[in-house]
Design a protein that fits this description.
Blueprint (H helix, E strand, L loop, with lengths): L1 E5 L5 H5 L4 E5 L6 H4 L4 E4 L7 H4 L6 E4 L9 H7 L2 E3 L6 H19 L7 E5 L3 H12 L3 E5 L1 H7 L7 H4 L4 E4 L17 H6 L5 E4 L8 H7 L6 E4 L10 H6 L2 E2 L8 H19 L16 E3 L6 H12 L2 H9 L6 H13 L11 E4 L4 H10 L2 E4 L2
Parallel strand pairs: 1-2, 1-3, 3-4, 4-5, 6-7, 6-8, 8-9, 9-10, 10-11, 12-13, 13-14
Length: 380
């Protein structure tokens, strides 16, 4: 059996070599020539899997170690009778942590307080629901928008989009749907952005095409938006003028925690075992991170404490600084550097691996740290 696998999938060789010969390739370079005599194809979001890639090949199983499927032609796979598996939810914690890492940097910059902020969450699935639960536990006023869930449940907690556009913070967690009742392509077009509250904080970690990047570029300064973008239209050839207007810009790495990557591999590995009717014999090894105890001193506010702790685990501004090195590059260099940042992304562990040692008994601060995923213990 021959397996073609994106080289950026964590532990790919270790997990999948038991099934046959594994060939690791850059995701954007996988072609029909590579897979014509292959049985299994495992990709990430940068590989478009459709008839032009698969026609005439022997591929019977397609897996994507990602949460989205907009790069997969599911109708064609059904016609071809190919089995498909995705990794929905694999990096939900990582993306949630990215959102709050960005948010606490903004809170410090703008001297805001959690309890004064309302947050609109558009898309309340695996990721959006985690963001919502954490935001509520931190004392924020949470507003939800999810038309499919509204139709399914009838729950009045799911509000119309117009109501959410008036929030202080808007964070997007929807799939990319290019047509249909729940179309999300350019969900935030010029008119929606124009209707969004002035000085709003806009965070997009879903898919770049959910926001019309040209419209956002035109309106960002006029509307005084604080913009955080991890995803971009036309990746890897991004809008660099828009990058210059962001508070934080990163190269589609919000979900790139160590655990998120491994979860994706595990989910596709388990699905392939089921497809091949093989026993599951591989399990990843999770070593505790170095310096898993975080010492804190006295702090003036909960917001200051939380930012200091988060930054010791995940310094999102470092990712932003690395991203901005793309600005002077030409088109070829821009695309290559964007992909290189993703390929060589440094090890990032999730918050639940860390214990925060606090010098004072502060029940509210402890509760907030727990809500973000940290363990907490007192110190004298």
């Amino acid at each position: 059996m021959k397996l073609i696998i994106d080289e950026n999938i964590a532990f790919a060789e270790e997990a999948f070599s038991q099934f046959g010969d594994v060939l690791l390739l850059p995701g954007r370079e996988i072609s029909k020539e590579h897979i014509k005599d292959s049985d299994v194809l495992i990709v990430r979001s940068v590989t478009r899997v459709d008839e032009s890639l698969l026609d005439g090949t022997n591929v019977k199983f397609v897996g994507t170690a990602t949460i989205g499927t907009d790069h997969i032609d599911l109708n064609y796979l059904n016609k071809k009778n190919s089995t498909f598996a995705d990794a929905a939810g694999c990096n939900a914690n990582a993306v949630k942590e990215y959102v709050f890492a960005a948010l606490f940097n903004i809170i410090k910059k703008q001297n805001l307080r959690l309890k004064d902020l309302n947050i609109g969450i558009i898309g309340v699935g695996n990721i959006g629901s985690k963001v919502a639960d954490t935001a509520a536990a931190l004392g924020m006023n949470v507003k939800l928008n999810d038309p499919p869930l509204k139709r399914k449940t009838g729950d009045p907690k799911y509000l119309g989009l117009a109501e959410v556009l008036n929030c202080d913070i808007i964070t997007l967690h929807v799939p990319l749907n290019k047509e249909g009742e729940d179309k999300t392509f350019h969900l935030f077009d010029y008119e929606k952005l124009l209707s969004t509250r002035d000085s709003a904080i806009i965070i997009n970690t879903s898919r770049g095409e959910v926001i019309d990047n040209a419209a956002l570029n035109n309106l960002a300064s006029e509307k005084n938006f604080t913009v955080v973008l991890d995803v971009w239209e036309n990746e890897p050839l991004i809008n660099k003028e828009l990058l210059e207007k962001t508070f934080i810009g990163t190269p589609h790495v919000a979900g790139y925690s160590f655990e998120g990557k491994i979860n994706g591999t595990v989910m596709i590995y388990n699905a392939l075992c089921g497809f091949l009717k093989k026993e599951r014999s591989w399990k990843p090894v999770y070593q505790p991170p170095d310096n898993f105890r975080i010492e804190t001193e006295r702090y003036s506010s909960a917001e200051e404490l939380l930012l200091n702790v988060i930054t010791k685990v995940y310094d999102i501004k470092r990712d932003d600084s690395e991203m901005r090195l793309i600005l002077p590059k030409d088109e070829t260099g821009t695309s290559a550097y964007f992909d290189l940042l993703r390929k060589n992304y440094p090890l990032r562990r999730e918050f639940n691996n860390y214990t925060v040692r606090m010098p004072v008994k502060d029940i509210p601060a402890k509760s907030m740290l727990n809500a973000l995923g940290f363990m907490v213990e007192e110190k004298a």
